């Protein structure tokens, strides 16, 4: 009944190549967009924005970026935290150096800077594959965090070694600093997320996405049928870096406001985003959202259940959270290696036939 | 001899000692990777877990006491006995074998035939899980592990190398940590034992056969499940040794699990599949990072140890993607 192509006739080329070819899918998409843009901003409060919505939006961008690299192009990266730090520090330097330029441009430029750095660290991927590459990206992680910690120029010689976002506005609405409202920060991040998701979705179903997938499935075979591995791998690193940079910039400027690099963008951040991609589903844009939502919600739910309802000490709940996250990852990999996105796909197939499954 | 040369030599010696410790962790990785193709990220956390278990057993802590107290409102913490180190080590080995069996039975048996990257992710999940369990079981505070290994600098070496200074007043002989020396000996014994085990015993040969080809090994009647449990147990034992050495050196705490990250560049340098590679790689990294910090650290702002190993390995891999001693990677379509 749902998700059925039957009766949904395409009469023009444009209709045939639209992003969501199935009618129900398209309407669902419009409905979600309408809800996110027209309903949520009016009911949002500070708690919801800071505990759930902002991290969800920002991590979704990072997860989409990493999914392009790992899920679509098959290049495992453990340097996400370091690349997010690049985005954050690029944004900080730009914000303080050019206070009059719009934040939108700063965030985009931060993404661009990260893309360049990411390509630089992606260069060895032409020679190194698999685990060796995964470990090589750790070099990026540790080197970048060290760099931002030790070179005072990056944090403008501040005494604490931290960076903190000065107050900036977009079209007259304050979006960074303590005076920003939940609605403003939420909408700012949402716009970036929607744009990133649209770009990613369309890149992955076009030529460039197909070359990525060819490289992922078997790079030598792809090379033989005429895919340029240099171009494919480095574009994947660039696009991924761009998204991750944007998420890093937003994470710093909009969400946290002040950042100490080793704490916020450490190796754990890399793993967290990687887990989102795995739990959500490798090679799926929807999966990136699902994974981000899952891992943002899980600690909140655990905290509410453990600390507020059961009254356990916070350290036990924190340890339990590790256990549960670890166990869930293993369970997911055993039961459903393709993640939440696969469950969604199966559900769609079922809905397609419902209520007459035969 | 001039000052800088003397200090340089001392740095090299200390680097060698640190390298031995890295190699000790890297060994556990190589064992599992060779036999099952699993890149075991949890090795560091296994060392942490083993060291915490050892400590907990030695002082008679009640496992999960924190959790039990939180749920039932009781106030238990210790059994009230203390167990000598050697007995506790044996019990810990049993625990690690049980752990190996559980891991094989409930996780990796279900993941046979999956892509290597999925297996790698599973071990990251395992690392989180085990870290959480270790904290719940024994508490997360820093523990001072003392199994009777000597601490402090070795006066004997200091006294007997003083003549090298040729009357230089700033030089009092080489300063080497006794613990590091012991660790070197332990590592050497461990490596010889492992090599002997894999060369001369039936199980060891079966292990090597599995490493070469799973299906061929299966077809000559080797029990894969048993071999994998065995390999994980051996890796657990290596983790315990690494945990004891590192735990005696700097206390049993969370940062112990991060030595896994230090072992990764060692592996890259030496090759994932080579035991000598792990050792040579460990020594190169140990000496390299200490020398680099000694020579250029002050100019670059210090703490270059955090990344030097990775960058070295990265640069090295670009020229030799399979590492120093790794098997040549042949790709076929």
SSE pattern of chain B: HHHHHHHHHHHHH
C-alpha-based Rg of chain A, rounded: 21 Å
Largest sheet of chain A: 2 strands, antiparallel
List the total number of helices of chain A. Answer: 15
Tell me the series of helices and strands of chain A, N- to C-terminal. Answer: HHHHHHEEEHHHHEHHHHH
Based on Cα principal axes, name the global outline of chain B: globular
User: How does the major sheet of chain B shape up?
Assistant: none
Helix fraction bin of chain A? over 70%
Estimated share of beta-strand residues of chain B: under 5%
Measured by residues with Cβ under 8 Å of the partner chain's Cβ, the largest interface is: A-B, 48 and 53 residues
- Structural class call of chain A reads mainly alpha
Roughly what is the average pLDDT of chain A, rounded to an integer?
88
Structural class designation of chain B = mainly alpha
Radius of gyration of chain B: 21 Å
Oligomer: heterodimer
Report how far apart the termini of chain B are. 59 Å
Description:
The complex is a heterodimer of chains A (358) and B (333). Chain A is an all-alpha fold and 358 residues long. Chain A contains 15 helices and four strands. Chain A has helices spanning 13-16, 23-43, 46-72, 80-97, 103-122, 130-150, 182-204, 207-217, 219-224, 229-256, 261-264, 267-280, 285-309, 314-335, 339-353; strands spanning 163-164, 169-170, 173-174, 258-259. In chain A, the strands form two sheets. Chain A has a two-stranded antiparallel ribbon. Chain A has a two-stranded antiparallel sheet with strand order 2-3. In chain A, a hairpin with a 2-residue loop joins β2 (169-170) and β3. In chain A, α4 (80-97) crosses α10 (229-256). With 333 residues, chain B is mainly α. Chain B has one domain. Chain B is 69% helix and 0% strand. Chain B has helices at 3-36, 43-59, 65-72, 85-106, 116-138, 155-160, 178-200, 202-212, 214-219, 224-250, 259-270, 275-300, 305-319. Chain B is globular. The model of chain B has no long low-confidence stretch (mean pLDDT 81). Chains A and B meet through α6, α9, α12 and α14 of A and α3, α5, α11 and α13 of B.
